[in-house]
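Annotated sample (chain length 66).
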Amino acid sequence: MSEDVPIGLAVAEKIFGFILIILGAVVAYYSMNPPAGDISHFAAIFTATGLVTVGIGAFLVIAKTE
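Output written by the structure step:
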């Protein structure tokens, strides 16, 4: 029942995971350290979103593609 996944698909999954990790880290960092302006009301929401994105990216990198 197990079919082999094409190598390109496995590599694309890992690359997409790394992109999500980088994007989530940038969002979380700039949400915790906002530039001048008044976006502090939504900092917790954006920080949580960034951390969730990092978690999803880490799962995609760690998950074994079969």
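Annotation: The helical segments are 7-32, 43-62.
Annotation: The mean pLDDT is 86.
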